[in-house]
Every structure is written in structure tokens, then in C-alpha cells.
Amino acid sequence: MSYNQQIKQQINFRPATVKKGKELYVEYFCRSPLTGVMKRYRIRLNHLKMTLADKILYAENICFEINDKLLNGWNPEIDELDTKLKYKTAKQAFDEFMEFKKSDELRSDTLRAYKSFIDNFLNFLDNRYKKQVFIAQINNAVVGEFLISLSKGKIKPRTYNNYINGLKTIFDHLVNHGYRDSNPFRAIKKKRNPIKSRLYLNENEKDKIFNYLIENDRNFCRIMLMSYYTLLRRTEITKVRVGFINLERQILYVPAEISKNRKDYNVTIPGNLISFLLELNLDQYKDTDYLFGPGFLPSASKLSPKKISDTWVKYRKILGFSDRIQFMSLRDSGIKKLIQMHIPLDDVMNHARHWSLEVTKTYLLHDTGRAIDSIKNANIDF
User: Fold this and answer.
1) What is the signed CA dihedral for 141, 147, 151, 156, rounded to 10 degrees?
2) What percent of the chain lies above the pLDDT cut of 90?
3) Tell me, what's the pLDDT at 343?
4) Average pLDDT of 334-347?
């Protein structure tokens, strides 16, 4: 790029001047902050009912006022929009979204997911355009290119759909708060989700990990049983406080602020879990202490959900289990076990805190990844 071209790019406007001829008008140019291109503006004056001399004087006054504003950084496009928020860069808008959501007291996993979606989207914009992009510039074409780049990265359909859902939510917020007029992710179709890749634990695997943890890490064994028996999710477990437990009534209160479904629940504590919780001597702790702290014991400090996952992976490797047996497999296996025990589906639905019976019924169809013993060993005549 020549020196003269560089200078031209640094000039953001051309002063207003009076144009005379068949038509009398004021003309000026201003660089669009969205496209970076100089845009011409004209104010026509022929329609005014006054003498030509008065029109020219009026035009000169308009030029003076416009040039004064241009010198002070004014841009006419801002007046064409509902709000200056649309002139925020994508990074500024996303940063303000995250600050808003932090004050909303969302789960740490949710905030981390939003941050991941935003960081990857901003990285794409930086690599693709090599300059700052305004939030109002992001259109269907930009979103399409981003999704193509995701697909080239060979991500799974579920991850692809998570990006669409996450960014759709983010852009809905930006529309609702005046940063944009529309949401380009609204028109995007999701990919078909495959069946969940998680496996249930079979009886042999449950015995194997239970016996190993009882001998080697009884405190983590308690967390494992907490997930299996109460069907609490990993993050929910880390937020349970001592005061939520009522061993006499066999009730675990799960308030809306820690529940994934944002509803209050009274969860039944099965009898097989009671003895493990009694070992904690909960009376010696404050009601505000967390049931499971960093050492998997009651504590004033909160346990990280990631530590649960990392510890599970460690023992899974030691025992030679499939990578498809994840910590959430405990919850899946607990639900499956209740169904196999012929517990009424309505009770299973309530215990699992499913939003409908249809969700619970999906566990009847869940792929186990293994041959079905009852069919394998059946003497089926032809």
C-alpha cells in the first residue's frame, strides 16, 4: 500500500461543501465504521421556498454546522441507527454480555461454555478479517463461514449444535439489549444428534469400582454413590450444603439456584446411601458448609466439578474401563436400575427430575454398547 493510500485510509471524512447547478445541495463524505468505505451524503435544498441567495446562505450555515460536528468525531451513520450500541466491536459486545451474565449468577459450567463459544468465534473473526469487526457487521454470510470452519475441524454433531444453541442465546441477548436488529443464528439448522455415546455401567463394573474405591478412596466412593443413588449431576453435587440434608426424613433439598432445571426439588435419599452419609458426622459442621469440599469431605470451601471428572477419569483408567463410561454414566445407570427394578416410571421421572415422562422413557431405548444377555442366551426357535 502506497503512502498516499495509507493517508487516505486515515481520513475519516471530507468536509461539507455547497454544490450549485440545476440542483442546489450540500455534499459531504464520511467513512462508515462498519464497512470502512467513504459514504456520500447530500442534503437537497431546491424544495425550500426562498430566494437563491438565501438558499446559498442557508447551505453555507449547514456546512459550517456539519463540519464542526465532523471535526469533533461525529458520524452521521450513528443517527441512522437506534443506538450507538451497534457500533460496539464484537469483542466489546461479547465482553459486556459476559459481565451481564456473571451478575446473573449462572452456573460456572454455563459461563465457561459461553466463554468458549465466544473465544472461538472471535478467533475465527480475527483470522478471517484481520481487523476489528463491529457487532452489527456479523451477518448470515459471516455465520455461515464460521460454521463451515467448525465442520472442517471435524467436531461432533452434538458439539456443532452446542455452538449453535450457545451463540443463538448470546445473539438473542444482544438483540434484546439493542446491540443488533436480528439474530443470524436463528436461521441455522442443527445437525442430527447421534445417540449418546455414554455407556451404562454393568453389574460387574459397578462391583469392580465400588470394591476398589471402598479400599482406596472411600470419600470419592461417597460422591460416586451420591450421583448413582440421588441422580444429582456433577455440578449440582458440588453445590449441596450440609443444611440441605435431612437424614431422618431421607430428604435432600435441592434449591432452584443450584438445580440445572432452575426448580426446587426434594430428592429422596435411598437407604443404601444413608450409612455412607452418617459416616460424615454432619452435626459437627455448619449448615452453610458444602457437603463435599476439595478433599471430598464437608468443608467451607467449594469442590470444583472438574476435580470430580478428573478423579473419575483417573480411576476409570486404573480399572481399564471404556472411555465411554463417564461420570454421568452413574446417573444414567441409576435411572436404568430403577426402571429394571420396576419402580413406576412416574416415580423415576420425579426422582431424576426429568421435565416429562418421554425423557424418562428414552432410557428404555438407550444403547448399552453390549449384547443383551436375555436375547443372547435365549433358545429362540425358527
Assistant:
1) -160
2) 51
3) 87
4) 89
Query: Hey, what's the cell of 158?
Result: 452434538
Q: State pTM to two decimals.
A: 0.58
Model confidence pLDDT, tens digit, residues 266-309: 999 999 999 999 999 999 999 999 999 999 999 999 999 999 99
The contacts of residue 193 (CB under 8 Å, 6+ apart) are: 157, 158, 161
Q: With contact defined as beta carbons under 8 Å apart, do 121 and 167 qualify?
A: yes
Round to the nearest angstrom and report the end-to-end CA distance of the chain.
81
Per-residue pLDDT tens digits for 197-249: 678 899 999 999 999 999 999 999 999 999 999 999 999 999 999 999 999 99
Residue 14, strand partner residues:
29
Contacts by residues 116-120 (CB-CB < 8 Å, ≥ 24 positions apart): 117/162, 117/163, 117/166, 117/167, 117/170, 118/94, 118/170, 120/163
- The type of residue at 214 is I
3-state secondary structure of 106: coil
What are the tens digits of pLDDT across the range 77-113? Answer: 766 554 556 667 889 999 999 999 887 766 777 888 9
The span from the CA of 313 to the CA of 325, in Å, is 9
Q: Look at residues 232, 282, 277, 280 and name the one whose alpha carbon lies nearest to residue 258.
A: 232
Cα 195 off chain centre by: 21
Grid cell 465400588 in the structure block, residue: 210
Domains detected in the chain:
12-80 (no CATH), 86-176 (1.10.150.130), 203-373 (1.10.443.10)
**Coil, strand, or helix at residue 127?**
helix
Residue bearing cell 459442621:
285
Give 81's DSSP letter: S
State the DSSP H helix or E strand holding residue 25, giving kind and residue range, or none if neither. Answer: strand 25-31
